[in-house]
Amino acid sequence: MKKVHGLELKPIGVIRSPYKNRADVPYQGHRSERISLIEVLEEFEEGLQDIEEFSHIIVIYWFHKCHGYHLLVKTPWDDIPHGLFSTRSPHRPCPLGLTVVKLVARNKNILKVTGLDAIDGTPILDIKPYVPAVDRRPTAKSGWLKGKGKPEKKRC
Amino acid sequence: MKKVHGLELKPIGVIRSPYKNRADVPYQGHRSERISLIEVLEEFEEGLQDIEEFSHIIVIYWFHKCHGYHLLVKTPWDDIPHGLFSTRSPHRPCPLGLTVVKLVARNKNILKVTGLDAIDGTPILDIKPYVPAVDRRPTAKSGWLKGKGKPEKKRC
Predict the structure, then answer these.
(1) Which residues of A90-121 are buried (b: 16+ CB within 10 A; e: fewer)?
(2) Does A67 sit within 8 Å of B144, measured CB to CB?
(3) Residue A52 resides in a domain
(4) ipTM of predicted complex
(5) Nearest-CA neighbor of B31 among A16, A118, A13, A133?
(6) Percent residues over pLDDT 90 in chain B
(7) Which has more confidence, B25 or B112?
(8) Is A106 part of a structural domain of the chain?
(9) Which of A1, A83, A127, B120 satisfies CB 3.0 to 4.6 Å to B17 for a cystine?
(10) Spatial distance between the Cα atoms of B108 and A29, rounded to a whole number of angstroms
(11) Cβ-Cβ contacts under 8 Å for B28 (sequence gap 6 or more)
């Protein structure tokens, strides 16, 4: 068994994405059909066994270009400041990103996915199977985002 | 703006849970109506503004009692070893836990939730709103977990 200590994270891989910086990522990037590659380090390849049986996976990654945060933030969706934790802003105390992506194919340690709205070079911290019985919430409400189909201004 | 450096994470709060250790957590803990409290540090309270408008939130936490991993794991659901990343085992290279919970109420920096299957004292790293348009995957498939309604043996 390999040991893990403390709150220090070591990435398990890296994202190869068509988006070179944040401004390139479309607002509804999770709906995009553009392909990203998840290059898992070869030492972890065995841990991917059977993952191709799932149609969707949860990717947790490091917003490695974000180095600070405000507790109240304005988003592109309206002009009202909201608490940071009621937004998906990448600028967070623990800058962890999370996207549910569609798993298109696996080739050894490389996962081909769509709907990943992270930029090229983003370090990956964890991959989990999306399990409908566990993760789906059919009755969830959208809070202040209700009815906000399109952003009102450009991404900050 | 407060600065964040490197891959070193500082918890934003702690979970107060009825489960004192892993063996206490029910298998379908995400379906439980038992209340847990998320105590966000007071310094972050402002960041919770408007979160009570959402019915569900995503909680990312540290499996602080897990200090190692195997790349192939047997789960309570069958006798076949699966790749770690196609399971939700807490023993992971980056021991990050993720649960979508129901937000019952907020009192200042304290969130009252149900469906949180983490043990008492678990450090919280991030809270995000569950946004149906972003996070829901109605057609997702369950992979090797398909049809496995009940675990075949006790939790490891």
Answers:
(1) bbbbbbbbbbbbbbbebeebebebbbbbbbee
(2) no
(3) yes
(4) 0.91
(5) A133
(6) 64
(7) B112
(8) yes
(9) B120
(10) 33
(11) none
Does the beta carbon of B83 lie under 8 angstroms from any beta carbon of chain A? yes
User: What CATH number does the domain containing B85 carry?
Assistant: 2.40.30.70
Residue A2 inside a domain? The answer is no
Which residues neighbour A112 within 8 Å (Cβ) at sequence distance 6 or greater? A35, A36, A37, A103, A104, A105, A106
Cross-chain residue pair A72–B82, CB shorter than 8 Å: no
Q: Nearest CB to A93: which of B12, B94, B129?
A: B12
Amino acid at A126: D
Q: Which residue range forms the structural domain that includes residue A13?
A: 9-131
Chain B nearest CA to A83, separation (Å): 4
Average pLDDT, chain B: 89
Query: How many domains does the structure of chain A reveal?
Result: 1
| Whole-prediction pTM | 0.92
Per-residue three-class SS string for A98-151: EEEEEEEEEECCEEEEECCCCCCCCEEEEEEECCHHHHCCCCCCEHHHCCCCCC
User: Which of B107, B132, B125 minimizes the C-alpha distance to B54?
Assistant: B132
Contacts of B147 (CB under 8 A, 6+ apart): none
Task: Name which of A44-58, A113-127, B37-51, B132-146 the model is least confident about.
Answer: B132-146
Residues 2-31 (B) with a CB less than 8 A from some CB of A: 2-5, 7-12, 30
Instruction: Look at residue A128 in the predicted model and tell me its pLDDT.
Output: 97
Q: In whole angstroms, what is the distance from residue A21 CA to residue A64 CA? A: 11
Whether residue A155 is contained in a domain is answered as: no
Q: What is the pLDDT of residue B30?
A: 75
Which B residues, 87 through 116, put their C-beta within 8 Å of a C-beta on chain A? 87-88, 92-96, 98, 100
Question: Can you tell me whether residue B121 is helix, strand or coil?
Answer: coil
State residue B150's pLDDT score. 64
Share of chain A above pLDDT 70, in %: 91
